[in-house]
Amino acid sequence: MRGMTVRKTVLTAACALAALLPAAAQAQTAPAPSEASLALGKCFVGKATGEDRTLIAQWMGASMAMSPAMKEIVTVDPAVKDRIDRQMAETFTRLMVQDCRAEMATLIKGRDAAGIQAASGALGQMAMQQLVQDPQAMQALIAYAKYIDPAMMQKLVQ
User: What are the residue ranges spanned by the domains of the chain?
Assistant: First the structure.
């Protein structure tokens, strides 16, 4: 019986990981970021406060909710979205102009728009990590596993 519980836990974890693989595969096909881009991304993440991290996660969630694929299940009040956008603009401006000015200037001088975009992606990764570290979010991510047919999965190990 304990073996079945372990297998089910491993299977659930594997399914949750598989749901995240498309993003990892996409990241592997992108060109490697420059040293300056990595430095800016590290600065962004290092200088982001706890409030910033929450705001960035909210901004990403509210922005993704605007996709036609999400409109059926998620509704974001336009006034709330506008408030989050304004707060995000203030936060990102602070990060670029004050907190990480030297790193940002290096990329601007090098006309490295892709580097700036890659560094900004570090904020997105940080926000996603914050979201999936939340126990309630993780439970929601793996909730579909209860509908997986164990008999079908058993065929994988036969």
Answer: 2-157
